[in-house]
Amino acid sequence: ESFPPLRNEAAVRVLRGRMKGIQGHCNSCYMDAALFSLFSCTSVLDSMLFKPFLLCDRNVQSILRDEIVNPLRKTGFVRARSVMHLREQLTEKGQCSSFTNAEKDPEEFLNLIMHQILGVEPLLKLQSGGQEQDCYCHQIFMDKQEDLVVPHVQQLVEHSFLSSDLKLVEIPSCFIIQMPRFGKEYKMFSKIIPSLELDITDLLLDSPRECCVCGDIATLECS
């Protein structure tokens, strides 16, 4: 039996409280947070759970669907053993023994499971310096901004695209964004406010936009 993503009052009722979410174990936080974000309250990537992609590993797909996503949506809780089962499979498929015990970058996890194991097409098409590149998520890299104390996600994405000279070639079907990294020694921001809607108008390549002076269609863009 498959369960739909949690919405509104149901999400609050099922996911809030003690012993809720995905249980952490042995440096699994990067994977726990990524899986919770991708599947708990949205169905945009549910094709990963059901669709028989060309390169799809059905064993990994069934573990992801039946042991992690469905229990999360049904009861709001996933045991660490289920995530470890997935990590063991990723270790076997990815020829990387540290997936079961070491902390990884979420982007490395997404690339492995989406590209190499499930065969999902890249979600993002970006252009930088005239060169196009395909990827599955955008990791925010930026210098410390003194005027951004408690930023919104919208501000971070815009600053990141501007500083890296990036543009979206097309509107993405799914826009996965990894927040600025931080560790025990350093945190760039103590808090980040989620933007419930993301305006990507200024991030799109060759998108018609309004001139901020006269209101007509803009012909020039100043960074």
From TrEMBL:
This is Ubiquitin carboxyl-terminal hydrolase CYLD. Pfam families: UCH. Keywords: Cytoplasm, Hydrolase, Microtubule. It is found in: Cytoplasm, Cytoskeleton, Spindle. One of its GO terms (molecular function) is cysteine-type deubiquitinase activity. Signal peptide: none annotated. It comes from Balearica regulorum gibbericeps (East African grey crowned-crane). GO terms for biological process: protein deubiquitination. GO terms for cellular component: microtubule; spindle. Residues 21-200 form the Peptidase C19 ubiquitin carboxyl-terminal hydrolase domain. PANTHER family: 40S RIBOSOMAL PROTEIN S3A (PTHR11830). The lineage of its organism: Eukaryota, Metazoa, Chordata, Craniata, Vertebrata. The keyword Acyltransferase does not apply.
